[in-house]
Amino acid sequence: MIRRLRVLSQTFFFLLFLFLLVRTQYGGTDEIGLPVNVLLEIDPLHLLSTLLATGTIPGLLWLALITVALTFVFGRFFCGWVCPLGVCIQLTQKLPLRRRENVIETNRWHRSQTIKYYLLGGLLVASLFGMQWTGILDPLSLAIRSLGLVVLPGIELGLRGLFDAAYHHNPFGIAGVTEPVYEWLQGRAINFAQPQFHQSFLIGALFLGILALSFWRHRFWCRTLCPLGALLGAVARVGLFRIRQRGGCTECHRCTFSCQGAAEPEVPDGWRPAECLVCGNCTAFCGPQGLTMGFDRPRLRAPRPVAGTQVRRRHFLIAAVAGLAAVPLTRLSANAKRAHPLLIRPPGARPEAEFLARCLRCGECMKVCLTNGLQPTLWEAGVEGLWTPRLVPRIGYCEYNCTLCGQVCPTQAIQRLEREEKKKVRIGLATIDPSRCLPYAFQTPCIVCEEHCPLPKKAIWFEEVEVVTNAGVRKRVKQPRVDIELCTGCGICETKCVVQDKPAIRVTSANEDRNPENRVLLESAGETPYGH
Fold first, then answer.
1. Helix, strand, coil content of the chain in percent (nearest 5)
2. Which CATH code of 2.50.20, 3.30.70, 2.20.28, 1.10.260 fits the domain covering 345-425?
3. What is the pLDDT of residues 283-295, one digit of tens each?
4. Where are the domains of the chain?
5. Predicted structure pTM score
6. Distance between CA atoms of 453 and 436, rounded to whole angstroms?
7. In a 3-state reduction of DSSP, which class is residue 8?
């Protein structure tokens, strides 16, 4: 019964995860209307790392305390019953590529399973000094980032190809059926425009690598590397949940053969609650009914570990020192001294240091961006800012009436702004390159940038000047100018610029409200519309 309930739970939560992930997109309105980030909010690792990094519990992250309480009662159930990355790993292991030799030996506890505790210690020490790297390895952030920025866009690309083929070739008149289906899917399961993301190869390679490791050792990620599993395991060690032997063990090893966490339930007094994923396989496959699940009074301290299996203090101290050393090492980049011109953060983003201390690299803001303009960084924010969001105007602009990215951010690294408030936030500044602008360099009329500027009082205006063509003909053209006080840096002028290879008008991070030091004119400095 436990095993069947676990399979139902995994199916429900994985379908819920996919549903919320698919619905994290623009659907025609500026309101998401669904708690699409709820799984991130019940993650205790996000709660603890954000609390250490910022001293606050933003948004609804306190919901993670419910997960902690349930873990104290039921053990490390989250990994075996809820985690979407765990489901992906299990589905991968169903492929007929996995070698079945020596399964019992590989399912026994191995010292490498202590690595996750050292990773957890290093990440939390780094968080204490404001470096939020838990999102890189946290399974929920990793699953959302991988599926949302790589897998789902790939599936969408394939679906678009199928619908396009049906429309253009129309075999047996099938287009009459496929076109209404395609129109219904748009804004629900398919974006209005095909999303594409930078670093998709790296993000996808990490995800595939995690899945591939499971062919070497069953649930290698969950057993060896997952920092969330380490945190939940530490709680489960002192919890109420127990697996006991009834004394009828025949040493058939079927429980070890089927164990997902390498918790060794067959070892007398050696069952490891910190490794048990509460999958129920051991009791389901125990022929003589020699194992039983139940509850006992809480342990005031962790049980004495089996000899040779404990986390070593020396190694844990080394991991903590490594986490501490990573803080100054990752901040030696020149970006920490001077703002990177291409690091255009979304409107509502907090000052850079606080933004990096909160951002989970989950990718929800990038997936929900209706123009596909938000992209994961590589080196623009230094090593510390890997895979945090930045606006790339050549790909997409910041829509004037959109506030979606602030709605989906679980830690308020991007603050939720009201629409009228957001319209006033400056995230950058547009500048014109006269060597490429048509009215300047080629004496050709062009008013595209001014036409697309969304501000009621245009931030781009024209000065009519007399120019001389190569033929010696005098003519008057309108040359664009940028009003530094009005421009918000939304990037639509760069997106729509007719000069395709390298736009004649480009947006940089200069004049952003969140950084008073990143100014073009000193007199333009002042308080931001949202209080920083």
1. 45, 10, 45
2. 3.30.70
3. 888 865 678 888 8
4. 2-147+201-295, 345-425, 429-508
5. 0.91
6. 19
7. helix
